[in-house]
Amino acid sequence: MQQLSSQALAPPRQLPPGVRWFPSLASPERSLKFHKFLVLLLTFAAYASFHASRKPPSIVKSILTSPINESLAANTSSDQGGSESSQTPSQGVKGWPPFDGPRGPHHLGELDLSFLLAYAIGMYFSGHVADSIDLRIFLTVGMVGSGIFVILFGLGYFLDLHSLGAFVFIQVFCGLFQSIGWPCVVAVVGNWFGKAKRGLIMGVWNSHTSVGNILGSLVASAVLLFGWGWSFVVPGILIILVATFIYIFLVVRPENVGMELSEEESTAATTAAEGIALVDSGEAESVDGEGVETEDEGALVPIGFLDAWRLPHVASYAFCLFFSKLVAYTFLYWLPFYIRHTAVAGVHLSHKTAGILSTVFDIGGVVGGVMAGFVSDIIEARGVTALMFLILSIPMLILYRLYGSVSMLTNIALMFMSGLLVNGPYALITTAVAADLGTQSLEKGNSRALATVTAIIDGTGSVGAALGPLLAGYISTRGWNSVFFMLIVSILFAGFLLFPVVKNEIRGKWDEGKWIRFA
């Protein structure tokens, strides 16, 4: 790490207020490791709060529809041995119009679709914008906007709101603001970290998704007793509070505080930020040190949307994530509902217990994301790693459906392994893979591609995320076996789309002789 001259410091308007209020944060005594840790902590908290604010809809689903009468469910389960027929909610118990009644699950699926489709569409635009403006400001706007609309959804309870159109309107704008988060946090982390150990670092960092889901489930379940509106209001306030810290303390690039990455990290860095510090009047020292070359002005211009699609393997991973995220988000939005309506050891669980139990899937996701990143670093093959996880997840989902209701211990074990295998490739593709693909444009003279490529991959995946919960809402009325069949078919398509990537990776490793040495 080297300190830059005062001329290399970012203009005051680009410095976060916290750095101006506490100049010691930018002092030479502060190491690069300190700032990297701070960036990881802040972006982790930011995206965890995003996911925490997405979790309430899944927690309140069984309340909004016609909920199971506790005593009736217990008696029915004991009389009929917990069969599928005994798991049907008793009729005549009112939920929350317009989500009660036979079409309740359909309306909930449509609500999920409105959020996730807006999220997917917004992702394509927000990624390109994120490559062009101050990431700290843009991320703060996304968090505050998300918090406001999450709170507005919860206010529907207190205002006795029963308009499906109003709830859809709120979800659409919430999805648009939420789409700002992911391209921003990935781009900021990419500014501070090179490619070395990226899979492991981003695998650990990406646990914010599962941590946010867990936190959101626990918070929403804990306040559910006071009314389902609080399950939205509290997470909405939480994300606004975290946004305050992001605005005050997040440093977007090393040079903003007079630092630059090492030469090794700088050559593999994820955006133009690492190269800008070496540029003086449009000139930069070449990597091999043999002279000075003029940097193409286009290198500092964000890559075009269609050009980003044409980068090698971007389309393959994007459509793979379409199906992978379809599976992950079906669990995200419907798992508490499924647990609530499926007897475990012949007993129906309460709303609160079902919500808390669903966090086991996300705990498995934390482990899966770290494992996928670690394995992909060791074998240096992201595609092969993702494919292995996808293949193993198929028998695990079958086991969970068949034997998850046998006992609580069996349910927890199989749910944990399902979360590990389902979320592993999803986490790997949205982090390390996106960063790898976004930096390959460095070889072609344009390093402003990370947020755009990230948005393309996650945006395409989010279309699948929108489709999955919608289909689950309709298919679940025909039985949960049909839902699990849909999930397994989706995983098969995801794996099939990775074949060209895997073939290329295996050929490359074989030509280099690396996998011969492994054997």
Essential attributes:
4 strands, 23 helices, Growth Hormone, Chain: A, 519 residues, two-stranded antiparallel ribbon, mainly alpha
- In the predicted model, the low-confidence regions spanning at least 5 consecutive residues are 1-11, 67-93, 267-300, 441-447
Helicity, as a percent range: 55-70%
Pairing-aware structural class of the strands and helices?
mainly alpha
Our count of helices gives: 23
Number of strands: 4
Write a short abstract of this structure:
The protein is built from 23 helices and 4 strands. It is globular and about 60 Å long.
Protein architecture, described:
This protein has helices spanning 17-21, 32-54, 56-64, 70-80, 104-130, 135-158, 164-178, 181-192, 198-205, 208-222, 230-249, 263-267, 273-276, 305-310, 314-340, 351-357, 359-379, 382-403, 408-439, 450-475, 480-497, 499-512, 514-518; strands at residues 2-3, 259-260, 283-285, 292-294. By secondary structure, the protein is an all-alpha fold. The protein has a single domain (29-69, 99-253, 305-509), classed as MFS general substrate transporter like domains (Growth Hormone, Chain: A). The strands form two sheets. The chain has a two-stranded antiparallel ribbon with strand order 1-2. Residues 1-11, 67-93, 267-300 and 441-447 have low confidence and may be disordered.
